[in-house]
Amino acid sequence: MIVPYVLVWLARLAPPPTITSVAGFNASLTMLFPFVQGLALAVALGPKRYGIGTILLLVLALTVIEILGAYVFMREGVICLIILSPLIYGLMLLGALLGRLFARGGASRTVQASLIPLVVFAVFAEASGPKPDHTSAVTDSVTISAPAEYVWRYVLSYPQNNAAPEYWLWRAGLPEPIQSVAEAPRVGAGRVCMFSDGLAFEERITELEPNRLMTFDVTKQPDHPEVIGHFQFDRGQIRLTPNADGSTTVTATSWYRLFVRPAAYFDYFDWWTADITRQVHFSRAQPHQGIGRTRLPSRARRG
Questions:
Q1: Rounded to an integer, what distance in angstroms lies between the CA atom of residue 302 and that of residue 257?
Q2: Quick one: which of 169, 45, 177, 30 has its CA closest to 90?
């Protein structure tokens, strides 16, 4: 059980050149070892027939140990572990079910002897591959019962939002956006999106058309265990479209990259990242707050 965490400790004795490579290595451990731990569990139980309920409970116990180990040894954030837990449980259960077949076939000793070297090789082989860099974009729209000239006041900067968060991950401890502040209404000016816990995303305005459009690059994101190494927000945009009835449609787009290993799990993590990004778009520190709106269907696109 402790092998993945010992490997992480050894890897940190000689730090890789980038944060991304550390995160990629840790993710490889997180994704590959649960399957093997489930396999080892079934092999250790031997050929005796156990009910599926017993297997499910044992796998659940192992998942809890895995999560605690990742929190203590890998210093993973609590929200990241919440996101990972269903995947870890599923992989561990898959390994346990496959292990039952091995155990009943009388290959338990052979399998047990080969588990650790096989998985260590797989982890290092996968982690030494190309740098994981998956790009994606999320776009959401909302209609506000106010003219574009009024909505524009809240695009560049937005006053602090002290309301209790509604999104369940924010209530669980994920830092939530509370305020946006721009230095000046011009291209090249700095802008800061502030989150709870004193965190902030630093931005630079790259495109500005009053009452219509603002685009910005993210120049620095916070050093936080829920953020660092896992993803990078690159760019954001807010577009206002006046409607014939005097309302305004606000369209927010965010471009980001995910650093996920193994690459096969990109869609799973992208779903979570897109969901969180949509909440950032229109749930806390964006133009619609306090103005009134009718939500339109969200849509996401991948680049």
A1: 10
A2: 30
Which residue type does 220 have? K
For residues 261 and 279, give the distance between their C-alpha atoms in angstroms, rounded to a whole number.
25
CA nearest to 256, candidates 178, 212, 201, 199: 201
Q: Mind listing the pLDDT tens digit for each residue in 38-50?
A: 877 877 777 777 7
CA dihedral for 237, 175, 89, 112, sign (positive or negative): positive
Give the C-alpha separation, 134 to 132, whole Å: 6
* 210-216-217 Cα angle (round to 5): 165
Q: Answer for the pair 85, 67: CB distance below 8 angstroms, yes or no.
A: yes
Q: What is the pLDDT of residues 128-163, one digit of tens each?
A: 656 666 889 999 999 999 999 999 988 888 888 888
Angstrom distance (rounded) from CA 67 to CA 21: 21
Question: What are the beta bridge partners of residue 300?
Answer: 138
CA dist 19 and 260 (Å) reads: 12
Kindly state the helix (H) or strand (E) to which residue 301 belongs, with its residue range.
Answer: strand 299-301
Report the distance separating Cα 169 and Cα 126, nearest Å. Answer: 30
What would the DSSP string read from start to end of 176-239?
-EEEEEES-SSTT-EEEEEEGGG-EEEEEEEEEETTTEEEEEEEE----TTTTTTEEEEEEEEE
Quote the CA–CA distance of 33 and 95 in Å, as a whole number: 10
Range 89-94, long-range pairs (CB < 8 A, 24+ positions): 89/34, 89/59, 89/60, 89/63, 91/31, 91/34, 91/35, 91/38, 92/34, 92/35, 92/37, 92/38, 92/41, 92/59, 92/62, 92/63, 92/66, 93/38, 93/55, 93/56, 93/59, 94/35, 94/38
Q: Which residues pair with 194 in a beta bridge?
A: 179, 200
Instruction: Provide the whole-model pTM.
Output: 0.69
DSSP 3-state of 249? strand
